[in-house]
Amino acid sequence: MIPNKLKILLSGVPGFSSRGFFGWCTIALVKVNSGEYLLFDTGHHGDRLTLLRELERMGLSPDKISHVVVSHLHFDHCLNMHLFKKAKIYASEKELNYVLSNEYEAKGDPFVPYAYVKDLSSRIATVEDGQELAPRCQVVLLPGHTPGSLGLFLEDVKVILVGDAIRHAWELLHEPGICFHSLQEAEKSAKKALEIAEVVVPGHDRPFKLEEGRVHYLEDFHLELIFRIHPHDQPVTVKLES
Ligand SMILES: [Zn+2]
Fold this sequence. Notes:
Elements: E1 6-10, E2 16-17, E3 20-21, E4 27-31, E5 37-40, H1 48-57, E6 65-69, H2 75-78, E7 88-92, H3 93-100, H4 103-106, H5 114-120, E8 124-127, E9 132-134, E10 137-141, E11 150-154, E12 159-163, H6 169-174, H7 183-196, E13 199-202, E14 208-211, E15 214-217, E16 222-227, E17 236-241
Parallel strand pairs: 5-6, 6-7, 7-8, 12-13
Antiparallel strand pairs: 1-4, 2-3, 4-5, 9-10, 10-11, 11-12, 14-15, 16-17
The structure holds zinc ion.
Zinc ion binds next to helix 2.
């Protein structure tokens, strides 16, 4: 069971196509102990209307979100930050510097929306490892995928949201994920996340527990892909379910 203080608004999708990476990340809403709402990651333009619809279903407008934490500054996680006009936006200092100093270019990282981040940079507050944003809700530095990747640890329910420090369970079991900073650091970060929490919420997958090397998901997988490729016929719908 996922603790009811945590709601996955958009479920991360561990997949790609012959056309490339979907960029469908996990977007999670946390009701923190002070009663305020925190959003962890914001998705990209293609997620925007779905995100707003899901918030509305929760009875929330974007102005009701008081904290936004972005795990890292890749397009698939941060491109809706500006919607949350009354929120404090948090990223790590290393991550913000990675973008603003152009280090990302030297690393060949194609996923950074530089102009968008630069434009919003005065609104982004930097946080340090272990900093509490609300009672028993703290950020955790998880470098590797990028130099300043952040997680969020909900201490009282032992849940950690990890962004792309663990993109999905398959990658955790089979091969290291893509790293623009350091593979060694990424392995340490994944280990750290698994040590401190019982439930891991990956950047592109459903929440899971890892018990004796086996992954146990806490939610089912549902995704419909709809293609209008036959103009004289009905759309083709592909339903994926676990
Ligand atoms: Zn991602």
